[in-house]
């Protein structure tokens, strides 16, 4: 598939997912609940198969990006909590969720440092896997059960989803190198699985939004607008931080391009479901930015040739 076709594939997935969520809400929600975790696992597995131990280098840039992701997310949550806890959650998840599994693909298309981005993707996902049970439990998401029970519940679902793919990738490298090589050479699979995941989770989010009624519209608009501000801010800050280390593209994509599929799943599962408006809107904002960047890159390439 050409780069231009990939540029349009994500908006098409979002549009058709929205239509499916509107026309077939029950069926779309059912399939999203069933397939989204499987697709997230598969995307991470394919991405991790590309990682070579020799390529994994923790850099100062990674520390700055992670600080914005985690500390920045908690700071924004605290600042917005006394205005509205739901708005705080919806904005927080847009910062806290890890780098998209397809980010290395987009980074490569834009001419960035792919190994740097893959290393940060791993760091980012592991940080979320370890911290999300603690953070979500302290947020009081499961107010009807104890902190310890909530912590164990979240651990049992989030940790295997994010960490097990790394273990499987390592196992394949050591025991089944042929399968590992096939997955390593098929990195585009993560992009296509991402498109399918977008279709499903956007459809599920639309199904939920429709069910909220008109009284929730002002809240939904506030969350969507804040996700736009957060999206632009993360791309900008990531680009500035990356510029300090000679890698603006990896910095921008590492911080700005989020695993919105995972974010929506986390929001619908552990936060107030209406907070899924944040990452659902973020899908539109980040892919608009990515599409524009790819357009500029293609234009630049054509001028150079």
UniProtKB/TrEMBL annotation:
It comes from the Bacteria. The chain crosses the membrane at residues 7-25, 31-49, 61-83, 89-110, 122-141, 147-171, 191-210, 216-238, 259-285. InterPro entries: Na+/solute_symporter_sf. The keyword Metal-binding does not apply. The keyword Membrane applies. Keywords: Membrane, Transmembrane, Transmembrane helix. This is Bile acid transporter. It comes from Barnesiella intestinihominis YIT 11860.
């Amino acid at each position: 598939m050409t780069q231009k076709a990939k540029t349009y594939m994500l908006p098409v997935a979002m549009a058709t997912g929205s239509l499916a969520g509107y026309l077939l809400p029950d069926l779309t929600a059912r399939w999203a609940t069933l397939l989204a975790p499987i697709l997230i696992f598969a995307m991470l597995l394919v991405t991790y198969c590309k990682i070579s131990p020799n390529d994994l280098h923790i850099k100062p840039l990674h520390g700055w990006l992670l600080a914005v992701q985690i500390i920045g997310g908690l700071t924004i949550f605290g600042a917005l909590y006394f205005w509205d806890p739901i708005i705080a959650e919806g904005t927080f998840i847009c910062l806290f969720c890890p780098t998209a599994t397809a980010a290395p693909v987009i980074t490569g298309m834009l001419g960035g440092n792919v190994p740097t981005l893959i290393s940060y993707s791993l760091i980012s996902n592991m940080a979320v896997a370890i911290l999300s049970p603690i953070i979500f439990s302290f947020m009081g998401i499961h107010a009807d059960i104890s902190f310890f029970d909530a912590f164990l519940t979240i651990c049992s679902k989030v940790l295997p989803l994010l960490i097990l793919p790394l273990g499987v990738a390592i196992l394949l490298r050591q025991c089944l190198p042929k399968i590992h090589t096939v997955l390593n050479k098929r990195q585009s699979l993560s992009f296509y699985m991402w498109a399918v995941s977008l279709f499903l989770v956007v459809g599920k989010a639309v199904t939920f939004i429709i069910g909220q009624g008109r009284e929730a519209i002002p809240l939904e608009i506030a969350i969507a607008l804040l996700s736009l501000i957060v999206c632009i801010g993360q791309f900008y800050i990531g680009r500035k931080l990356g510029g300090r280390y000679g890698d603006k593209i990896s910095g921008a994509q590492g911080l700005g391009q989020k695993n919105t599929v995972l974010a929506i799943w986390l929001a619908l599962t552990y936060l107030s479901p209406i907070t899924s408006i944040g990452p659902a809107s973020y899908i539109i904002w980040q892919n608009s930015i990515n599409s524009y960047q790819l357009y500029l890159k293609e234009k630049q390439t054509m001028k150079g040739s």
